[in-house]
Amino acid sequence: MLIYLCSSSHGYGHAARDAAVMQRLRCLRPEWTLVMSSGLSSPVLTLLLGDTSIQQRSCQWDVGMVQADALGVDCAATLSALNQLEQRLPALIEAEAVWLASQGQPVLIVGDIPPAAAALAQRLDAPLVWMSNFGWDDIYGPLGAAFQRWADAATESYCCGDLLLRCPFDLAMNWGLPERRLGLVCASPRSIPADLEASLDAQDAPLVLVGFGGLGLSLSRDLFQLWPNHHFLLPDSADAAQALELAALPNLTPLPVGLRPVDVLGRCSRFLGKPGFSSFCEAMAQGVGMHVVERSGFSEASALMAGLRRHGQHRCLSRQELDTGAWQLDQPLLAPSDAPLSASGASEAAQTLVNWVEDHL
Fold this sequence. Notes:
By secondary structure, the protein is α/β, with parallel strands linked by helices. The chain contains 14 helices and 15 strands.
Protein backbone atom coordinates (compact mmCIF):
# COMPACT_ATOMS: atom_id res chain seq x y z
CA MET A 1 0.00 0.00 0.00
CA LEU A 2 1.23 3.50 -0.83
CA ILE A 3 -0.03 6.47 1.19
CA TYR A 4 0.64 9.75 -0.64
CA LEU A 5 0.01 12.84 1.51
CA CYS A 6 -0.42 16.20 -0.24
CA SER A 7 0.53 18.73 2.46
CA SER A 8 -0.29 22.42 2.26
CA SER A 9 2.55 24.84 1.61
CA HIS A 10 0.76 27.55 3.63
CA GLY A 11 2.86 27.08 6.75
CA TYR A 12 4.70 24.73 9.06
CA GLY A 13 1.57 23.80 11.03
CA HIS A 14 0.11 21.59 8.29
CA ALA A 15 3.42 19.80 7.77
CA ALA A 16 3.88 19.33 11.53
CA ARG A 17 0.55 17.58 12.02
CA ASP A 18 0.95 15.61 8.79
CA ALA A 19 4.38 14.39 9.91
CA ALA A 20 2.91 13.31 13.25
CA VAL A 21 0.28 11.19 11.48
CA MET A 22 2.85 9.68 9.11
CA GLN A 23 5.03 8.71 12.07
CA ARG A 24 2.09 6.88 13.66
CA LEU A 25 1.27 5.21 10.35
CA ARG A 26 4.84 3.96 10.08
CA CYS A 27 4.47 2.30 13.49
CA LEU A 28 1.17 0.66 12.57
CA ARG A 29 2.12 -0.47 9.07
CA PRO A 30 5.91 -0.62 8.67
CA GLU A 31 5.53 -2.44 5.36
CA TRP A 32 3.56 0.38 3.68
CA THR A 33 5.21 2.97 1.44
CA LEU A 34 4.66 6.44 2.94
CA VAL A 35 5.24 9.59 0.89
CA MET A 36 4.92 13.17 2.08
CA SER A 37 4.57 15.70 -0.73
CA SER A 38 5.06 19.35 0.19
CA GLY A 39 6.45 22.67 -0.99
CA LEU A 40 8.40 23.13 2.25
CA SER A 41 12.14 22.61 2.13
CA SER A 42 13.59 19.13 2.54
CA PRO A 43 15.53 20.05 5.74
CA VAL A 44 12.29 21.23 7.37
CA LEU A 45 10.41 18.07 6.37
CA THR A 46 13.30 15.85 7.47
CA LEU A 47 13.31 17.53 10.89
CA LEU A 48 9.54 17.16 11.29
CA LEU A 49 9.39 13.56 10.05
CA GLY A 50 12.44 12.28 11.94
CA ASP A 51 12.23 9.12 9.82
CA THR A 52 14.18 8.62 6.61
CA SER A 53 11.94 5.73 5.58
CA ILE A 54 9.14 8.24 4.86
CA GLN A 55 9.80 9.48 1.34
CA GLN A 56 9.60 13.13 0.33
CA ARG A 57 8.35 14.69 -2.91
CA SER A 58 8.95 18.40 -3.52
CA CYS A 59 5.61 19.78 -4.76
CA GLN A 60 3.76 23.02 -4.15
CA TRP A 61 0.12 21.98 -4.19
CA ASP A 62 -1.50 25.16 -2.94
CA VAL A 63 -0.96 28.78 -1.94
CA GLY A 64 -3.19 29.21 1.09
CA MET A 65 -2.72 32.83 2.07
CA VAL A 66 0.46 34.76 1.40
CA GLN A 67 1.46 36.20 4.75
CA ALA A 68 2.82 39.72 5.22
CA ASP A 69 4.25 38.55 8.53
CA ALA A 70 3.33 36.06 11.23
CA LEU A 71 0.12 37.96 12.08
CA GLY A 72 -0.94 39.51 8.76
CA VAL A 73 -1.99 38.39 5.28
CA ASP A 74 -1.47 39.96 1.84
CA CYS A 75 -4.63 39.46 -0.22
CA ALA A 76 -3.28 40.99 -3.45
CA ALA A 77 -0.18 38.80 -3.35
CA THR A 78 -2.36 35.78 -2.61
CA LEU A 79 -4.52 36.34 -5.71
CA SER A 80 -1.42 36.73 -7.86
CA ALA A 81 0.09 33.53 -6.45
CA LEU A 82 -3.17 31.63 -7.01
CA ASN A 83 -3.21 32.63 -10.68
CA GLN A 84 0.41 31.59 -11.12
CA LEU A 85 -0.13 28.24 -9.40
CA GLU A 86 -3.14 27.53 -11.59
CA GLN A 87 -0.84 27.57 -14.63
CA ARG A 88 1.64 25.13 -13.07
CA LEU A 89 -0.71 22.61 -11.51
CA PRO A 90 -1.65 20.53 -14.61
CA ALA A 91 1.99 19.63 -15.27
CA LEU A 92 2.60 18.89 -11.58
CA ILE A 93 -0.48 16.65 -11.33
CA GLU A 94 0.52 14.74 -14.46
CA ALA A 95 4.13 14.27 -13.31
CA GLU A 96 3.13 12.99 -9.86
CA ALA A 97 0.44 10.74 -11.33
CA VAL A 98 3.00 9.16 -13.66
CA TRP A 99 5.45 8.69 -10.76
CA LEU A 100 2.78 7.14 -8.54
CA ALA A 101 1.61 4.79 -11.29
CA SER A 102 5.21 3.66 -11.78
CA GLN A 103 5.39 2.48 -8.16
CA GLY A 104 3.10 -0.45 -8.94
CA GLN A 105 1.12 -0.26 -5.69
CA PRO A 106 -2.46 0.64 -4.76
CA VAL A 107 -2.54 4.30 -3.72
CA LEU A 108 -4.51 6.29 -1.15
CA ILE A 109 -4.27 10.08 -1.48
CA VAL A 110 -4.49 12.11 1.75
CA GLY A 111 -4.98 15.88 1.42
CA ASP A 112 -4.22 18.52 4.06
CA ILE A 113 -5.77 20.53 2.37
CA PRO A 114 -4.70 21.43 -1.18
CA PRO A 115 -7.78 21.26 -3.43
CA ALA A 116 -5.46 19.92 -6.16
CA ALA A 117 -5.27 16.63 -4.25
CA ALA A 118 -8.71 15.88 -5.70
CA ALA A 119 -7.44 16.27 -9.26
CA LEU A 120 -4.51 13.96 -8.51
CA ALA A 121 -6.81 11.33 -7.02
CA GLN A 122 -9.15 11.56 -10.02
CA ARG A 123 -6.24 11.25 -12.45
CA LEU A 124 -5.20 8.02 -10.68
CA ASP A 125 -8.74 6.81 -9.96
CA ALA A 126 -7.54 6.57 -6.35
CA PRO A 127 -9.49 7.12 -3.11
CA LEU A 128 -9.05 10.43 -1.29
CA VAL A 129 -9.16 11.28 2.42
CA TRP A 130 -9.07 14.87 3.65
CA MET A 131 -7.59 15.82 7.03
CA SER A 132 -7.88 19.36 8.38
CA ASN A 133 -9.64 21.81 10.66
CA PHE A 134 -10.64 24.06 7.74
CA GLY A 135 -10.75 24.22 3.97
CA TRP A 136 -9.52 27.04 1.77
CA ASP A 137 -13.15 27.64 0.84
CA ASP A 138 -13.74 28.57 4.50
CA ILE A 139 -10.87 31.08 4.27
CA TYR A 140 -11.46 32.52 0.79
CA GLY A 141 -15.26 32.83 1.03
CA PRO A 142 -15.33 35.71 3.57
CA LEU A 143 -12.69 37.69 1.60
CA GLY A 144 -15.09 39.00 -1.02
CA ALA A 145 -15.81 38.74 -4.73
CA ALA A 146 -12.16 38.58 -5.84
CA PHE A 147 -11.76 35.26 -4.00
CA GLN A 148 -15.16 33.74 -4.78
CA ARG A 149 -13.96 31.73 -7.78
CA TRP A 150 -11.24 30.14 -5.68
CA ALA A 151 -13.64 29.42 -2.82
CA ASP A 152 -16.14 27.72 -5.14
CA ALA A 153 -13.45 25.66 -6.86
CA ALA A 154 -12.08 24.53 -3.51
CA THR A 155 -15.51 23.41 -2.31
CA GLU A 156 -16.04 21.44 -5.52
CA SER A 157 -12.72 19.65 -4.98
CA TYR A 158 -13.34 18.90 -1.32
CA CYS A 159 -16.72 17.32 -2.07
CA CYS A 160 -14.89 14.70 -4.17
CA GLY A 161 -13.34 13.00 -1.13
CA ASP A 162 -14.26 9.70 0.49
CA LEU A 163 -13.68 10.67 4.14
CA LEU A 164 -12.92 13.73 6.28
CA LEU A 165 -10.68 13.50 9.32
CA ARG A 166 -11.92 16.55 11.22
CA CYS A 167 -9.30 18.15 13.44
CA PRO A 168 -10.09 20.34 16.47
CA PHE A 169 -10.55 24.14 16.23
CA ASP A 170 -12.55 23.56 13.06
CA LEU A 171 -14.49 25.67 10.61
CA ALA A 172 -17.55 24.49 8.66
CA MET A 173 -16.08 22.12 6.04
CA ASN A 174 -19.59 21.45 4.69
CA TRP A 175 -18.51 18.93 2.06
CA GLY A 176 -21.07 16.17 2.54
CA LEU A 177 -18.48 13.53 3.45
CA PRO A 178 -18.39 10.83 6.13
CA GLU A 179 -16.35 12.19 9.06
CA ARG A 180 -14.18 11.07 11.94
CA ARG A 181 -13.49 13.70 14.60
CA LEU A 182 -9.94 13.67 15.99
CA GLY A 183 -8.32 14.82 19.20
CA LEU A 184 -5.24 17.05 19.29
CA VAL A 185 -2.98 16.17 16.35
CA CYS A 186 0.67 16.71 17.28
CA ALA A 187 4.04 15.04 17.53
CA SER A 188 5.66 13.73 20.71
CA PRO A 189 8.75 15.47 22.12
CA ARG A 190 12.20 14.10 21.32
CA SER A 191 15.28 14.25 23.51
CA ILE A 192 17.32 17.46 23.48
CA PRO A 193 21.14 17.94 23.58
CA ALA A 194 22.63 17.28 27.01
CA ASP A 195 24.24 20.73 27.27
CA LEU A 196 20.94 22.47 26.53
CA GLU A 197 19.13 20.22 28.98
CA ALA A 198 21.64 21.10 31.71
CA SER A 199 21.38 24.80 30.90
CA LEU A 200 17.58 24.79 31.10
CA ASP A 201 17.56 22.72 34.29
CA ALA A 202 19.86 25.30 35.88
CA GLN A 203 17.44 28.17 35.23
CA ASP A 204 15.67 29.51 38.30
CA ALA A 205 13.31 31.71 36.28
CA PRO A 206 10.13 30.41 34.62
CA LEU A 207 10.77 29.34 31.03
CA VAL A 208 8.67 30.92 28.25
CA LEU A 209 8.71 29.56 24.70
CA VAL A 210 8.22 32.28 22.07
CA GLY A 211 6.62 31.04 18.86
CA PHE A 212 5.31 32.90 15.82
CA GLY A 213 5.48 30.16 13.20
CA GLY A 214 7.84 29.71 10.30
CA LEU A 215 7.91 33.40 9.37
CA GLY A 216 8.64 34.51 12.89
CA LEU A 217 8.06 38.03 14.12
CA SER A 218 10.68 40.65 14.96
CA LEU A 219 10.45 41.61 18.62
CA SER A 220 12.70 44.29 20.07
CA ARG A 221 15.27 43.17 22.61
CA ASP A 222 13.91 45.91 24.89
CA LEU A 223 10.67 43.95 25.29
CA PHE A 224 12.42 40.89 26.71
CA GLN A 225 14.32 43.14 29.10
CA LEU A 226 10.97 44.19 30.58
CA TRP A 227 10.72 40.64 31.97
CA PRO A 228 14.06 40.02 33.70
CA ASN A 229 12.52 37.39 35.99
CA HIS A 230 11.49 35.19 33.07
CA HIS A 231 13.77 33.24 30.72
CA PHE A 232 12.74 33.05 27.06
CA LEU A 233 13.42 30.28 24.55
CA LEU A 234 13.45 31.46 20.94
CA PRO A 235 13.29 29.03 17.99
CA ASP A 236 15.83 29.23 15.18
CA SER A 237 15.29 32.51 13.28
CA ALA A 238 15.73 33.32 9.60
CA ASP A 239 16.82 36.82 10.67
CA ALA A 240 20.46 36.17 11.57
CA ALA A 241 21.17 39.73 12.67
CA GLN A 242 18.21 39.81 15.04
CA ALA A 243 19.07 36.35 16.38
CA LEU A 244 22.61 37.50 17.17
CA GLU A 245 21.33 40.61 18.94
CA LEU A 246 18.82 38.67 21.02
CA ALA A 247 21.29 35.92 21.88
CA ALA A 248 23.28 38.46 23.90
CA LEU A 249 20.38 38.94 26.34
CA PRO A 250 20.94 37.21 29.69
CA ASN A 251 17.33 36.04 29.90
CA LEU A 252 17.05 34.54 26.42
CA THR A 253 18.30 31.27 24.92
CA PRO A 254 18.10 30.72 21.14
CA LEU A 255 17.23 27.11 20.36
CA PRO A 256 19.82 25.32 18.22
CA VAL A 257 19.16 24.52 14.57
CA GLY A 258 17.52 21.12 14.22
CA LEU A 259 15.48 21.34 17.42
CA ARG A 260 11.71 21.56 17.20
CA PRO A 261 9.86 23.87 19.62
CA VAL A 262 7.74 20.89 20.78
CA ASP A 263 10.92 19.25 22.13
CA VAL A 264 11.36 21.95 24.82
CA LEU A 265 7.76 23.05 25.27
CA GLY A 266 7.10 20.70 28.18
CA ARG A 267 9.87 22.37 30.20
CA CYS A 268 8.12 25.75 29.91
CA SER A 269 5.50 27.27 32.14
CA ARG A 270 4.10 29.50 29.39
CA PHE A 271 3.99 29.88 25.60
CA LEU A 272 3.89 33.32 23.95
CA GLY A 273 2.83 33.40 20.32
CA LYS A 274 0.18 33.62 17.64
CA PRO A 275 -2.92 31.50 17.08
CA GLY A 276 -1.61 28.37 15.38
CA PHE A 277 -3.02 24.87 15.12
CA SER A 278 0.15 22.94 15.90
CA SER A 279 1.24 25.32 18.68
CA PHE A 280 -2.16 24.99 20.33
CA CYS A 281 -2.19 21.19 20.03
CA GLU A 282 1.35 20.85 21.37
CA ALA A 283 0.80 23.23 24.29
CA MET A 284 -2.54 21.70 25.29
CA ALA A 285 -1.15 18.17 25.02
CA GLN A 286 1.72 19.12 27.37
CA GLY A 287 -0.37 21.26 29.73
CA VAL A 288 1.43 24.53 28.99
CA GLY A 289 -0.39 27.86 29.44
CA MET A 290 -0.66 30.04 26.36
CA HIS A 291 -0.39 33.82 25.96
CA VAL A 292 -1.81 34.32 22.49
CA VAL A 293 -1.94 37.46 20.33
CA GLU A 294 -5.31 38.07 18.69
CA ARG A 295 -5.17 37.95 14.87
CA SER A 296 -7.55 39.34 12.26
CA GLY A 297 -8.10 38.71 8.55
CA PHE A 298 -7.84 34.90 8.70
CA SER A 299 -10.99 32.95 9.56
CA GLU A 300 -9.18 30.06 11.22
CA ALA A 301 -7.89 32.40 13.93
CA SER A 302 -11.37 32.92 15.40
CA ALA A 303 -11.93 29.16 15.62
CA LEU A 304 -8.54 28.71 17.26
CA MET A 305 -9.19 31.43 19.83
CA ALA A 306 -12.62 30.00 20.63
CA GLY A 307 -11.01 26.58 21.10
CA LEU A 308 -8.32 28.09 23.30
CA ARG A 309 -10.91 29.60 25.63
CA ARG A 310 -12.80 26.32 25.75
CA HIS A 311 -9.92 23.89 26.24
CA GLY A 312 -6.65 25.61 27.22
CA GLN A 313 -5.14 27.55 30.10
CA HIS A 314 -4.61 30.96 28.53
CA ARG A 315 -4.38 34.71 28.41
CA CYS A 316 -5.32 36.68 25.27
CA LEU A 317 -3.22 39.66 24.16
CA SER A 318 -3.86 42.47 21.69
CA ARG A 319 -1.27 43.34 19.06
CA GLN A 320 -0.60 46.56 20.98
CA GLU A 321 0.07 44.59 24.16
CA LEU A 322 2.50 42.37 22.26
CA ASP A 323 4.33 45.34 20.74
CA THR A 324 4.62 47.21 24.04
CA GLY A 325 5.71 44.20 26.12
CA ALA A 326 2.49 43.99 28.18
CA TRP A 327 2.63 40.21 27.99
CA GLN A 328 0.86 39.44 31.31
CA LEU A 329 3.37 36.75 32.23
CA ASP A 330 3.02 37.71 35.89
CA GLN A 331 -0.75 37.16 35.79
CA PRO A 332 -2.54 33.89 36.58
CA LEU A 333 -3.73 31.88 33.62
CA LEU A 334 -7.44 31.85 32.83
CA ALA A 335 -9.08 28.45 33.14
CA PRO A 336 -10.82 26.88 30.12
CA SER A 337 -14.60 26.65 30.13
CA ASP A 338 -14.69 23.01 28.95
CA ALA A 339 -12.81 19.77 29.49
CA PRO A 340 -9.38 19.12 27.94
CA LEU A 341 -9.20 17.55 24.49
CA SER A 342 -7.73 14.10 23.88
CA ALA A 343 -4.05 14.29 22.92
CA SER A 344 -4.20 11.17 20.72
CA GLY A 345 -5.39 12.74 17.46
CA ALA A 346 -2.38 11.63 15.41
CA SER A 347 -2.82 8.01 16.49
CA GLU A 348 -6.57 8.23 15.85
CA ALA A 349 -5.95 9.55 12.33
CA ALA A 350 -3.40 6.84 11.54
CA GLN A 351 -5.63 4.04 12.83
CA THR A 352 -8.61 5.41 10.90
CA LEU A 353 -6.55 5.39 7.69
CA VAL A 354 -5.47 1.80 8.33
CA ASN A 355 -9.06 0.75 9.00
CA TRP A 356 -10.31 2.55 5.89
CA VAL A 357 -7.74 0.85 3.67
CA GLU A 358 -8.54 -2.56 5.14
CA ASP A 359 -12.29 -2.02 4.69
CA HIS A 360 -12.23 -0.54 1.19
CA LEU A 361 -9.10 -1.67 -0.69
